[in-house]
Write a structure and sequence with these properties.
- With about 290 residues, this protein is an alpha/beta fold.
- It has one domain: NAD(P)-binding Rossmann-like Domain (Rossmann fold).
- It is built from 9 helices and 12 strands.
- A 6-stranded parallel beta sheet has the order 2-1-3-4-5-10, with helices on both faces. Strands 6-9 form a two-stranded parallel ribbon. It has a two-stranded parallel ribbon with strand order 7-12.
- Helix 3 links the parallel strand 3 and strand 4.
- Helix 1 packs across helix 6, helix 2 packs parallel to helix 3 and helix 3 packs parallel to helix 4.
- The longest helix has 22 residues.
- It starts with a strand and ends with a helix.
- The relative contact order is 0.16.
- The structure holds NADP nicotinamide-adenine-dinucleotide phosphate.
- It is an enzyme of class 1 (oxidoreductase).
- Keywords: NADP, Oxidoreductase.
- Pathway: Carbohydrate biosynthesis; dTDP-L-rhamnose biosynthesis.
- This is dTDP-4-dehydrorhamnose reductase.
Length: about 290
């Protein structure tokens, strides 16, 4: 029996975590206006309330941090604010969780890597973020690992969900608006449906609450397999019943954006499997299920 607090409850992942609440897992998922992870007082009050309520009900408290500044391009000119949410936020959460004996699961990103690998990144590989968002997320990981709190960092990638503004929803809109479109074919990653990620995090929360494993750990959890943004867009068109040939491959250099992106962001799921957790299904199967749902 778990009681879970999800800062960032109004985001793609936060909503899917809340949607998977059951009789044995209660989920409180405040939005940023209800719980701002930059605000020490609010965080301490929320974690204390969680710990007291859970223990009174004979449940185990766990925090899953889904709060983040995720506007990758905007972060280039707003790094201070991104840092406050993505690095100070986890630090404040870790301190509050540590003092109340509450384990913390924190979500991070493939963008902490430089993207120059040729095989999937393992959890211990060297970080080398290329952009401000990645730097702030890497700083958040450091803050957690340096806090001594019982904490699990779960890196994921290319997240899409029903409630977000994301690549899948953008492609669905552009399919209606344009005859043809060009999509970059030289960035490779693993699309991850936030609903599948939420299920994986809840499985991890159960293990963490049971006291399994070391007190700090970095894990990778993404949809299975990999593709390019162009390959992903073609698959989305196919799911929409549209001709995938309307999606044309192009190079990143043809569409310069404020933030550099890693060319290769595939994360190995070996750590997830070794922790005894269920790997997420392959990304094409998940995409099919997303459109069927
Ligand atoms: N999206 C991706 O492609 C992707 C890829 C890899 C990793 N990730 C990671 O996955 C996690 C979840 O991402 P997501 O896609 O669900 O993001 P999202 O949809 O952008 O949601 C982010 C959430 O964080 C909240 N938030 C922002 N500032 C906050 C603050 N100061 N205090 C508390 N909450 C705050 C937002 O609330 P408001 O809406 O109220 O501002 C929103 O609920 C994040 O850690 C992200 O870095 C995402």
């Amino acid at each position: 029996m778990l009681s879970i607090l999800v800062p960032g409850g109004s985001g793609q992942l936060g909503r899917d975590l809340a949607a998977q609440a059951t009789d044995s897992i209660d989920v409180t998922a405040p939005s940023s206006s209800e719980l701002d992870v930059r605000d020490t007082g609010q965080v301490v009050a929320a974690v204390t309330e969680l710990a007291d309520r859970a223990r009174a009900a004979g449940r185990s408290p766990v925090v899953i941090n889904a709060a983040a500044y995720t506007a990758v391009d905007a972060a280039e000119t707003d790094e201070e604010r991104a840092f406050a949410v993505n690095a100070d936020g986890p630090r404040v959460l870790a301190a509050a969780c540590s003092s109340r004996g509450v384990p913390l699961i924190h979500v991070s990103t493939d963008y902490v890597f430089a993207g120059d690998a040729t095989s999937p990144y393992e959890t211990g590989d060297l970080l080398g973020p290329l952009n401000a968002y990645g730097r702030t997320k890497a700083a958040g990981e450091d803050a957690l690992l340096g806090s001594g709190a019982r904490s699990w960092i779960v890196r994921t990638s290319w997240v899409y969900g029903k409630t977000g503004s994301n690549f899948v929803e953008t492609m669905a809109r552009l399919e209606k608006e344009r005859d043809e479109l060009s999509v970059v074919d030289d960035q490779t990653g693993s699309p991850t449906w936030s609903r599948d990620l939420a299920a994986g995090l809840l499985e991890l929360a159960g293990r963490v609450a049971a006291g399994d494993g070391p007190s700090q750990r970095v894990l990778h959890c993404t949809g299975g397999g990999s593709t390019t943004w162009c390959g992903f867009a073609k698959a989305i068109f196919a799911e929409l019943g549209a001709d995938p040939a309307r999606v044309k491959p192009c190079a990143t250099a043809e569409f310069p954006r404020p933030a550099a992106r890693p060319a290769y962001g595939v994360l190995s799921n070996a750590s997830w499997r070794e922790a005894g957790l269920t790997p997420l299904r392959g990304w094409p199967e998940a995409l099919k299920a997303y459109f069927a749902s």
